[in-house]
Records
---
Amino acid sequence: MPLNTINNRTVAAAGTPVALSATSILCNWVLIQALAGNGGKIYVGDFTVLNTGLGGITLEAPFLNSNLPFQTMETSSLTALFDLNLIFIDADSSTDGVNIVYAQIVSSTPATGLSTKTVQDMLDDIILMTQENSTFSSGFWSQTEVIDYINIVERNFFQLTGSVKAQADIIGTAGERLFNEPTDSMELDRITFNDIPLFRTNRWQLDAGNRDWKNLTGRPRQFHQDLLATKQFEFDREIVTVGTIGTTYTKLPVVRTATTDILNIPDAFCHYVLYGVLYRMLNKQGEGQDLARAQYCQMRYRAGIQIVKAMMLARGDLASSLFNAA
Amino acid sequence: MAISGQEVIDTILERLEEPLLTPVFWTRAEILGYVNEGLFELNNIAGKLHTTDSVVVSASNFYNTPDATVAVMHASINGKALVRTSLEALDRRDSKWESATGKPKRWVPIGVNLFAIHPRPASGTESVEFTVLKVPTDVTDDATAIDLDDEFVDLIEDYGFHIARFKEGGPEFANAMSALEDFASRVGDVSTKVLTQQPQMHAAEPNVDTGKSDTTIDRK
């Protein structure tokens, strides 16, 4: 489990809480310690925490009054429960701050409760179908290369089917209108602000509606992702009062590196990813190339995408016709 | 449901001209894997294997689907069906729907792993009963019967035979394409049987002639 640190996260202005991280960082365990040189107490809580003692708990500099650092319990499940973007600190004195240590179980986190198969399970299938051995001693492909293919095909499958979704909350800070998508987001489906949906638009429509929209403030009604940096979205109004931005999105699969890692793909769709990987392997230039079987695998992979898309419409008849057409 | 995984594997090995107990070019475990893949594929295409499950809902609108689910097909509470709709339809109908409380009337599939309910319970909990397309129970190489109508078991036999020839490649695999074509055409029969057994799915509340449904004329 990798251990990570954030040093000197400070509160610029006492009375204005700041998140432990400006972006979403999911983790399984967090330890927060007040800086030794702090002039006053630190307050830890959600975004409502204030140095008046409203909400949260207090931290003092280490060794003062034998005060212990704050730490979360370690989550026993593989799911990362804590988001540093949703834990806030305030301070009695401006520029006081904390040091943070957190741990993430990243590589073994299953995407959903629907996935139980491991990278090794898929490698075993590939080894059988290509008459390889467990060390890929033919030299046509390496195990690392094949695991890379698995990651690429999983991403492609998630993108083309939009089948695995996730949700995350982001704090909408007053005075802000530009935000980053959650770190595991591939494509935003829906955004809410304080549980009210915002509708997607684009820069042209906003400009056409009101050339001065960049100076509007209030409750946001629309969002766009047009002409912005990667994975950013912007509201049509600057937020006046802090609130919660709810996001629903197609999940970006976690990159798998170890053979014991659980695949992102739900078990029922594993064989489609298998054919996508075999397509890449058999299409590779070299002695292992077999274009006829590569073409077959590509057909099976594409059919799998159509089957899953049809399944999400609860249309069995549509799925069977697509399969034949493929 | 009387045909076993052992029998299917034996048949496939016979078609491959392999000894049943100690096959040379394939192992029984390998063939078993292909049979299971065939069952998964049949189930994904035709939506064949259903089961029921439940999720307790309370103060939130959003939940994970039950484990071992391929897709949720139907939802109800105490036997009363919930209407399937979409997030966009709810958003456009009432932008404050996430704040609404009461007995849930609608459900929304979100991908294959999440769902939403509307409204959410005002207090306490409700158990939402789901009919789901389930992840098939793995076939085993013994006398246990396969969870599939006997008349359709030959489909997964065709599929297993076809995939087994994949590793041979060349003309052997090309010749086995007919087995996949048989599978693909017959899986439509399974799909037809499933569809004729399914209840009518409504796009909105079936309050015919009450004027309260999205699909009926407002007669007020």
Note: Residues 74-79, 106-112, 315-326 of chain A have pLDDT under 50 and may be disordered.
---
Amino acid sequence: MITIKKLGFSYDTNVVLKDISMELQEGRIYGLLGENGVGKTTLLTLLAGLKKVEDGILEIDGKKPYNREPSFLSNIYYLPDEVPAPRRKAIDFAVDHGQYWTNFSAQKFSEIMTVFDTDQNQRMDQMSYGQLKKTFISFALACNTKYLFMDEPTNGLDIPSKAQFRKAVSKYTSDDSTLLISTHQARDLEAIIDPIIILDRRDVLLNASLDEIAQKLYFDYSSDVDPTALYQEMVPGGNIQVIPNTTGAESKVNIEALFNAVLLHKNEIKEMFNK
Amino acid sequence: MNNEVFNMNRLGRYLMTDIKNAIARYGVSLLVIATVALTGYLLVGFFTMIVGAGWQSMPVAGRLFMMVLSFIVLTISAPAKIYGFITDKKEGSAFLMVPASSLEKTISMILVCCVILPFAFFAVYLSLDQIVCLIDAKCGDSLIVAINNGQNVLTDAFVRISRESNNIVPDYSSLATPWMYFDDVAQGFLIFLLGALIFKSSKPAKTVGSLILISIALSMITTPIVMHGAIERFKEAAASNMSPEEIFESFPFISWSMKHAVLVDFLSDTIVNIGLAIAIYFRVRKIKH
């Protein structure tokens, strides 16, 4: 389990995270959303032990990530937004580096590379950015780690690759793995992320499962405008409206509309979900 | 030792990965630098042919100079080329995430820089020189023979100087041992490795600059301490009828250091090298991205 209590972090005088608290349960694929500069990448790098926690507590299974103990590192993998391009064949890189992750499977790596339609025998420094990203996503999933943190994994992927990404994550993630995926492209991941975390500069605005969200908010796709809507957006053929769910009606959560509604009504939504 | 800090199997595996990384990043450069022996030989031969002097070989002294120069280039450039990426956010993050301990990563880096690189360099360089000298009779002694002869000359010189000075100058022949050479070679690599891990750009230049500044600062601090009262004592010694031995003995720190030069050299190099290794470890341990 990931425990974050009153977490604070700043770059010199620029406070990025302050008093952030949340718990992440095992076996779930969390979507981490937030505006630019709210500290999503910073949070992921803190979880991966690439930065030192300045204030508060951040623990993964009771361990402090910054200690970077081998047993801890072999349980996590962090896929940054920008990935390096080693001068090696993808399969050689994967087999050579994968040996440090106890549950790494070279066969799984090859399978996922096939799903992505990417040649595992190609040198990584000769790949396009999208191919390189897909290679690292394949490697990340093939490591079979208990915790997997991904920063904007669909950045640089073409439209078919985004679908392949969703397929790969759904198929190749074990039930007890916890994924935390930061993204600005909510639609790319709509089908796989649950729960949703919406981060604000100094607050966690929302940390709830899709079921909880659907219980408390109704996503209306009709053409009638509801005056109580927290958020309303015209789309071809009607509207998307986010309305407090007072009747218990069921609806499909639209993550983009949810995100906009949360940003417009921070306190109201927080109160609604903290009840 | 705690499995989280050091594990021999993990170190072995990591070292193999690290060697592959070193080959990918510096293999070609190492080959270019290590084949200077052959390049120099061919260039001199062709040049002397062009000017009508027939095929001539570079003399041993010139070849030794080329080897030392090549080795200096290797010492300065290799650590930054192989491990400079660690300060880069993109590549450095991947390095930090590899499940091996900071100690294992540090030991592996030190082994690659201080043992494997020099060994690979000298193996290629001296072998090529040996082959050239076997083929071409005009080459004279190979570098291996020349180094061996030079070592004997140096040892003899130390013994002779000591004997002729009535042992005022101690016998330093034991300074010229392989370990003492290794100490210095390792120190050079450790300094530039630390520089590669500290500076984010222009790593070798900034390391050289820092070395110059540190040397100036150390001289400014130590010279007054070592030379405290020295001028007065020199004047007193000159005015009296003190023998050279007595003058030498009147500077206790200097005379002790000279008498125990082998120990002083060994201790100072070892302490500095251990200090550098510890600094590298903590840099690896504490680096953030």
Note: The first helix of chain A runs from residue 40 to 47.
